[in-house]
Specification:
- This protein is an alpha/beta fold.
- Helix 1 (about 35-50) crosses helix 2.
- The chain contains three helices and five strands; from the N terminus they run E-E-E-H-E-H-E-H.
- The protein starts with a strand and ends in a 23-residue tail after the last helix.
- The chain has one domain (about 1-105): ATPase, nucleotide binding domain (Nucleotidyltransferase, domain 5), CATH 3.30.420.
- Helix content is about 30%, strand content about 25%.
């Protein structure tokens, strides 16, 4: 099974591509405020560099928190949208190593939809008008 892994909870984003447990590609880059702009590009580049397409992806593992509100929101949203559109399982991982999600996927696990966990309540300011 081809598995895509994502970690977007900090300024350095990470993406991995695995064939079962075998790592095909793994990249870390300074995404910071350009995460929403660069994440899709990195996914496309990683798949193309390994002669894979979105149709080859059989599962997605994404770090679900705790971490940056915006980073987690973007990463989890992309993972959920891809899993839905590709009709493949998605799992959220709460420890630092997203590879634990690979084990869950290979054993048939799926969260259906991953929810981010920010580690503390979100602070939303009240509207001023």
């Amino acid at each position: 099974m081809i598995i895509l892994t994502l970690r977007t909870d900090k300024p350095e984003a990470e993406i991995g591509l695995f064939d079962d447990q075998k790592q095909l590609a793994y990249e870390t880059w300074q995404a910071h405020r350009q995460l929403a702009e660069t994440l899709h590009q990195k996914i496309n580049q990683t798949l193309a560099a390994n002669h894979k397409t979105f149709g080859d992806v059989g599962g997605i593992a994404v770090f679900s928190g705790p971490g940056s509100f915006t980073g987690l929101r973007i990463g989890v949203s992309v993972a959920n949208a891809l899993a839905y559109s590709l009709n493949c399982p998605v799992v959220g991982v709460k420890d630092a190593d997203v590879k634990t999600g690979i084990t869950r996927l290979l054993s048939g696990g799926s969260d259906k939809v991953v929810l981010p966990e920010y580690g503390s309540p979100v602070h939303i300011t009240t509207q001023k008008k």
